[in-house]
Amino acid sequence: MLEDLNHFIDSNPDARELKRAIAVQMFFKGYKHREIGESIGVSSGFISKWTGQYEQLGIPGLRLGYSGSVGYLEPEQRQSVIAWLKGKNYWNLAELQAYIEAEYEVVFDSQQSYYTLFEQAGISWKKTQKHNPKADPALVEKKTGNYSLAGSASA
Q: Which InterPro entries does the protein's record reference (predicted)?
């Protein structure tokens, strides 16, 4: 029984899995809960839980149950969306959401996923507007040299 546990520990598992396995190993070698807790910094409940899991399920009982989430867009789809964003002159969140849903049938649970796409495309998503609200038209005309002819009269 301890042989498979030793092999698992030697296989260099995730640190959380390793801590579970070492606690179980020490328990089966006769260490008391207090000694195990002081050695590896775990509670008595931790030791009981993982010892029970190991007795019931073996090594698979010590493994992490969560392996992370999978992105909804494939990498090439993500690049396509970023290219689409870069090709536009005006951006807004609702349009991005509609585009992704129409093209890939994907709706993200969190708006952060959309904001990340904006960021990856080099776009500030915080205030998407067509024009700068602080722009002074007179200063813009002076700077660009586009003077209005409305005030000049010809004889």
A: Homeodomain-like_sf, Winged_HTH_dom
pLDDT tens column, 26-71: 999 999 999 999 999 999 999 999 999 999 999 989 988 766 555 6
80, 35, 27, 16: which is closest to 54 by C-alpha?
27
Cα–Cα distance, 47 to 53 (Å, whole number):
10
Sequential DSSP letters for 94-108: HHHHHHHHHHH----
Q: Which residues contact 72 (CB under 8 A, 6 or more apart)?
A: 104, 106, 108, 113
The domains found in the chain, sorted by start residue, are 2-62 (1.10.10), 75-120 (no CATH)
Nearest to 120 by CA among 92, 73, 78, 90: 78
| 120 alpha carbon, distance to own chain's centre | 13
